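Q: Predict the assembly, please.
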Amino acid sequence: MSDHRPAVAPVVEETAEQIASMEIRGAAAIADAAAAALAAQAERSEATTPEAFRGELRAAAKALYETRPTAVSLPNALRYVLVGAEGETVSELRASTVARAERFRADLEDAQETLGRVGANRLRDGDVVMTHCHSTDALACVKAAVEEGKRIEAIVKETRPRNQGHIAARELREWDVPVTLIVDNAAHRYLDEVDHVLVGADSIAADGSVVNKIGTSGLAVSARERGVPIVVAAQTIKLHPDTMTGHTVEIETRDEAEVLSPADRRELTGGDLDDDGLTVENPAFDVTPPRHVDAIVTEHGQFPPESIVTLMRELFGETTREPWDR
Ligand code: RI2
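A: Predicted assembly structure:
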């Protein structure tokens, strides 16, 4: 039977699987991997016409896009590579796609470094930061501060259910930052010892709402109550262009087994897994309203959340169409 769907390279399928399973995770890392996968698709394409080549790239982008719905860095990366690739022939298109992906990945790295230096300005010698989840953008601020010779300490929340706080703790220890690891429930108790809550973002909406790892919004409420500033470190690829026209950000719900394994569930209820009357919910993200955020740190400087829409318009214009949706 003939199959008319455009060919998607196995390496793209692998990347998509790694993103879906969170082997590759973190909004920036997902964007980086997606751009690399599009370049790989371009390099491996056997298409003989520009139309077929573009069709394959769109199919690859769609496969990558459908892995995780919340981090807008993923569609932003795909759009950047697809829309920017130009050429009249397959070989021109191939070269252009690969160059565009490489440029995206290099810009991503540069942006994080710049953002780190901007964020480091907020941190003084001797400050204590509290982190939630593992954000490379947030940790770039700590790294830059440490490189400037400031002594920074970190109180690191474990971040159930996947304990990405452990990754943050490991990275911070590599930079010799003293780390205190706490369970998520202990955050309020430790906020008195903290100078800044420093988190990343998966998406930022036009009104300045911050979509980040589940637990961020509760932490922000606690921090407000204790008078601790909440700083969000997010490169501009985390800005969600669709929210400028009123769209909301989809919050990913993940497998309940991340919260409760089937074996633990059986032990808990002693019964039949299909009909034990127990519901497990596992939303991966939540929304922190702008009134609970002090500043959004980007590679273009720091912004009060309410003014981020100006930067969004400047960077994205009004174009929000998905490039594979033709
Ligand atoms: P960077 C992560 O999501 C966390 O929510 C983190 O704050 C955010 O991505 C940004 O990460 P997940 O992929 O881009 O662990 O700053 O679900 O590395």
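The CA atoms of residues 169 and 181 lie 7 Å apart. Residues 10-110 form a domain with the Four Helix Bundle (Hemerythrin (Met), subunit A) fold (CATH 1.20.120.420).
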